[in-house]
Amino acid sequence: MSVRWNLWHGCHKLSPGCAHCYVYRMDARSGRDAALVAKTADYDLPIRRGRDGAYKIPSGERVYTCFTSDFFLEDADPWREEAWRMMRERRDLHFFFVTKRIDRFSVALPEDWGAGYENVTIACTVENQAMAERRLPLFLEAPIRHRELVCEPLLEPIDLERFLGAWIEGVTVGGESGPESRICDYDWVLGLREQCIRRGVRFTFKQTGASFRKDGRLYHIAHDRIGEQARRAGIDYTPERK
Q1: Burial of 218 (0-12, 13-18, 19+ CB in 10 A)
Q2: Beta-sheet strand order (sheet of 2-5)
Q3: Is there a contact between 202 and 233 (Cβ–Cβ < 8 Å)?
Q4: Do 99 and 64 touch, CB atoms closer than 8 A?
Q5: Helix (H, G, I), strand (E, B), or coil: what is residue 168?
Q6: For 96-129, b where at least 16 C-beta lie within 10 A, e where not — what string?
Q7: Per-residue confidence of the chain (242 residues) as pLDDT tens digits?
Q8: Rounded CA gap, 142 and 174, in Å?
């Protein structure tokens, strides 16, 4: 089971992967400025209790965190310490979030962080080779107990192999959604899969993207089918653990 916890909303475009940000696209439909960052009504969701005194989010859930912003966004610096406190209080949940701002990892880091909280997975986004070279050395040096990589939107072939190993628990790959989507080539996806297999890292093909090229042919795929088409490819990989 899983829960979404968007404790603040809004972000600032940072790198090529942000060009056609789905948050900006969704907010534009309702006349909202996605560059305005604010706490949401769900800010304290993990620690809310029902009338019986029990937490509203039951123990054991996976909590997908901050998916309409970036957890390390500058605007959220005043709120992050409390966010960590809620994660610490709910050690019976597992929090997962994705960031493009791993260079800001240490801002408002809790004093008891140590090598990382056991119930927190941080995924670093690398949409092209330049971002991999810039972000991943910082990511691998940071004290994080559970790390994953997200190559979404995948904008070009990426060589990640030297960054992979036991310290990376999984790689998720996907193309770009939306009417202005840039091409995702199946050969790029397969290239990353082969790197993961060689290094024994879990691989997930999340979505094809709306503009998907395979064997030289370009396909335009409806939004409600980009995940289904990726699953039908049947290329996800989970290494055997000894």
Answers
A1: exposed
A2: 2-5, 62-65, 94-99, 120-125, 146-151, 170-174, 202-207
A3: no
A4: no
A5: coil
A6: bbbbbbbebbeebeeeebeeebebbbbbbbbbbe
A7: 689 999 999 999 999 999 999 999 999 999 999 999 999 999 999 999 999 999 999 999 999 999 999 999 999 999 999 999 999 999 999 999 999 999 999 998 999 999 999 999 999 999 999 999 999 999 999 999 999 999 999 999 999 999 998 899 999 999 999 999 999 999 999 999 999 999 999 999 999 999 999 999 999 999 999 999 999 999 999 998 75
A8: 25
Report the distance separating Cα 29 and Cα 15, nearest Å: 23
Q: How many CB atoms lie within 10 A of CB 219?
A: 14
Q: Enter the DSSP assignment of 56.
A: S
Please, are residues 148 and 121 in contact by the beta-carbon 8 Å criterion? Answer: yes
CA dist 90 and 179 (Å) reads: 39
